[in-house]
Amino acid sequence: MTDTHGADDARTPPPATGSPDRAADALPLDLDGTLLERMGIELGELTAARATGRMPVAGNTQPAGLLHGGASVVLAETLGSIAAQLHGGRTRAAVGIEINATHHRAVRQGWVHGEARALHTGRTTVSYEIVVSDDDGRRVCTARLTCMLLDVP
């Protein structure tokens, strides 16, 4: 397969994130060869309460040239799952048990930006609302993700 995310200049990385927001550095997150890498997802602030990231529209479209709805859901689940894993820590594994999404508007170019915010952080389940917006800050998709926290054997 070829990389279809557009020209390199279209993938300018987000501003550097300071260490207080990089709680994920404490967890081993190997992103090589993952769907995140394939979709061009770039992670921003990562904490148990809030996770942010962005994804290029180029390469993640349906045949009509619009951002694929499934791509928005991939971004949403990625951010919510990472935040859930941060809540669970090294002794728990966060596994998705439910996700839903409402698509509000189409996007044809640029980037979409996601922000996951904790709704519930319990001992065995966590839930996040994830808002995906376009470069102008307009809401593209609203998703809700629930993960179960399982003990790591």
TrEMBL record:
Keyword Hydrolase: yes
Record keywords: Hydrolase
Keyword Transmembrane: no
Compositional bias of kind Basic and acidic residues: 1-11
Domain Thioesterase: 65-141
Region annotated Disordered, chain positions: 1-26
Gene Ontology MF terms: 1,4-dihydroxy-2-naphthoyl-CoA thioesterase activity
Superkingdom in the source lineage: Bacteria
A GO cellular-component term linked to this record: cytosol
One Pfam assignment: 4HBT
Cited InterPro entries: HotDog_dom_sf, PAAI_dom, Thioestr_dom
Family: Belongs to the thioesterase PaaI family.
NCBIfam families: unchar_dom_1
Protein name: Hotdog fold thioesterase
Lineage summary: Bacteria, Bacillati, Actinomycetota, Actinomycetes, Micrococcales
